[in-house]
Design goal:
The protein has a seven-stranded antiparallel β-sheet. A three-stranded antiparallel β-sheet has the order 12-14-15. The chain is elongated. It is 34% helix and 17% strand. Helix 5 packs antiparallel against helix 6 and helix 10 crosses helix 14. The protein is built from 16 helices and 20 strands. The protein is of the alpha+beta class and 538 residues long.
């Protein structure tokens, strides 16, 4: 079989990307990659620039792609068209049955039910023709379960906006994927990816969690929430109803013999695409859940920006990190009043990490910045993502290395050194409880013995001390026996694992990372060496 090839041009490369994106959106037969990744693979649609002879599962690169463009456009049109209702069941425009299974949750104006739907597989077989594309011999269709949310049209007048946003912007691992939808005279049903349990149930320990399935800790939950919101904000979409009940967990299978629960954002009933100036004016009568609304959402004339979502996300962060608490209190009415008449920052007292005081300092800083009263004082979603609270030990090690370079260059600047030590209190090597006294490689000229390290007494001495222990603690063959034994004992105590070593060396100073981060970012040399820069607001 002779296959036609399409020349590689800028137009064709762009079309290939668009085609693969639409294939992922239209067909629910894709397989996800590793947990927390939105990488998608479609094995039946090759992405190489050429086709092998006699290959049956190939999408031929014909010089004439007009017909293929038409086919992809039709497929995309199908996914945003409504289904046909047959009693409790439906049939979508691809001819696939959507069968009612059971009712999951019933509200005043909506019902969420479980359905099962056939999964559509499309295989492309290429042969020599004018367009080089033909599809045939589809296998027997398997089934999967989906969620169907039936809403009263009178209560959800803007349902077309929700369907449009879900259909366009759910192609992300942390957003519940769109499947189909239907509407009739009185109601509308939106079919989406079926999840296992809610974030609320998970936090309250009421969820039916499989013990063999990996459960993300609080920090990973927040990182996944960030990725979902970051995807929306990257497409200029506001969610406008961020709260614990609008996040669900779904079990994902892994390629490395491990399952994990992945966080999914749902409910786009209040979502809006931003105008060209990255803001949108909205009426006050439909602005979300009052206890999770930003202060500006309580105003008569509401101009919302991405910062509106950040405020609500900050409240969600506090909820996750405190096992279900709200920073503004417990009573819903009282919470709404305090947010509307925002006069002072909440104390955030429930943020208590007894085993990691550095995380407590950083988490409190992050949440406080996210729930600032004025929208312009809140960080962007990208700045939230790179906040030191989410750094691993390797990033922190690199940070201290860059910080050491700045401290060494400014060691004669009295004003800088005063700022460097402000609020840090007394510091001494005894705080570290090291098993042996540190000795310097250089010998004393009089005694011929290795000198004891002087340790440190302030920040400018501690930073190079820390940097050296992080990078030069291993014994070396050139070291004499006494120094070699001392280094070996130190290495055994601190270990070679930076995830263990760094906390042992920084635990006595939980405020140090936070203090240095906001101080040193004003230094140009630091900014160039370490580019994770947030916005200074408070």
């Amino acid at each position: 079989m002779k296959l036609l090839l399409r020349p590689r041009t800028e137009e064709n490369v762009s079309f290939n990307k668009t085609h693969r994106m639409l294939m992922r959106s239209v067909f629910p037969t894709i397989t996800n990659g590793a947990c927390g990744s939105d990488t998608t693979t479609i094995p039946t649609v090759p992405t190489t620039d050429s086709c092998d002879d006699d290959s049956e599962n190939s999408c031929c690169k014909s010089p004439h792609n007009t017909e293929l463009r038409r086919q992809v456009a039709e497929l995309y049109d199908v996914v945003v068209r409504r289904t046909s209702r047959i009693g409790e069941n439906y049939t979508n425009d691809l001819g696939l049955d959507i069968e009612f299974v059971s009712e999951l949750k019933k509200g005043l104006n909506s019902i969420v039910s479980k359905y099962k739907i056939q999964v559509l597989y499309i295989y492309f077989y290429s042969y020599k023709s004018e367009f080089g594309i033909c599809s045939s011999n589809q296998p027997k269709q398997p089934e999967k379960q989906v969620a169907g949310k039936r809403m009263t049209r009178a209560y959800y007048p803007d349902f077309e906006n929700e369907v449009k946003i879900v259909a366009k912007f759910s192609d992300h691992v942390n957003i519940a994927r769109y499947e189909s939808h239907s509407w009739d005279k009185d109601s509308v049903v939106l079919f989406t990816e079926l999840c296992d349990f809610s974030l609320e149930a998970f936090i309250s320990k009421e969820a039916n969690v499989e013990k063999s399935c990996y459960q993300p800790p609080p920090k990973e939950i927040l990182e996944q929430a960030i990725q979902g919101i970051k995807y929306l904000h990257g497409h200029r979409v506001l969610h406008r109803d961020i709260k614990p009940s609008n996040f669900l967990f779904k079990k994902h299978c892994q390629s490395y013999d491990k399952n994990c629960y992945v966080l999914k954002l749902i409910d786009f009933g209040l979502s809006k695409e931003l105008d060209a100036d990255r803001s949108t004016f909205l009426p006050r009568d439909a602005l979300g859940t009052k206890s999770y609304m930003a202060p500006e959402q309580h105003e008569k004339e509401v101009k919302l920006t991405k910062a509106t979502d950040i405020f609500s996300l900050g409240l969600l962060f506090y909820y996750v990190l405190t096992n279900g608490k709200h920073p503004f209190g417990e009573d819903e009415t009282d919470i709404a009043y305090k947010i509307k008449h925002y006069t002072e920052h909440p104390p955030l007292e429930a943020l208590n990490f007894e085993d990691n005081m550095e995380d407590k300092v950083l988490a409190k800083d992050l949440v406080l910045r996210m729930i600032q009263k004025l929208p312009e004082n809140r960080p962007t979603i990208k700045e939230v993502e790179i906040h030191p609270y989410f750094w691993n030990a390797h990033t922190k090690q690199y940070f201290y290395k860059a910080a050491n370079d700045v401290v060494q260059k400014r060691s004669a600047d009295a004003k800088f050194l005063k700022s460097l030590n402000e609020g840090m209190g007394q510091m001494n090597v005894e705080d570290l409880n090291l098993p042996v006294k540190l000795k310097l490689p250089a010998k004393d000229k009089k005694t011929g013995e290795h000198q004891d390290s002087k340790g440190y007494s302030n920040v400018q001495e501690y930073i190079p001390f820390l940097r050296n222990l992080l990078e030069h603690c291993r014994p070396h063959d050139s070291h004499p026996p006494g120094l070699k034994e001392q280094r070996e004992a130190m290495r055994e105590h601190l270990t070679d694992d930076v995830e263990i070593r760094l906390p042992k060396l920084t635990k006595p100073y939980p405020r140090l990372l936070h203090h240095l981060y906001y101080l040193l970012q004003k230094e140009e040399s630091f900014r160039s060496a370490f580019k994770k820069m947030p916005k200074l607001t408070c």
